[in-house]
Amino acid sequence: MTEFLKFGLIKVTTKRSYNIFIMNDISDILRTLLDQLSIASKVDAEFANMLECDDTLKGDYEEWCEANGYDLKTGYKDYIDELIDSRDSIWENLNE
Questions:
Q1: Which of 3, 51, 52, 74 would bridge with 11, disulfide CB 3.0–4.6 Å?
Q2: What is the pLDDT of residue 87?
């Protein structure tokens, strides 16, 4: 379910009761889901569910993919993998 709030913020509530406040930024949604769920496969499933339930979000996702050079089918999965790799790289550098 999507609710439109002041200042362009959108509240997205999923079946699992995650509330995410965004400014139509798919990157922020994916980062927040990863922070909350910690496991890429759970993020994949949750975001796929969110896309299925919300046409506005789906349109924003399509624009995000086009603007960032991602494929519609795998864009969010690729982005999640990049986030995880980036975080792993930071920890590796700190441990050296």
A1: 3
A2: 78
List of residues 6+ apart from 73 with CB closer than 8 A: none
pLDDT digits (tens, 9 = 90+) for 12-48: 555 555 555 544 589 988 988 888 888 889 999 989 9
pLDDT tens figures, 52-82: 888 888 999 999 999 999 999 999 999 999 9
* Nearest in space to 75 (alpha carbons), one of 95, 91, 61, 89: 61
Q: What is the rounded CA–CA span in Å between residue 34 and residue 40?
A: 7
Q: Which amino acid is at 54?
A: D
DSSP 8-class letter at 8: G
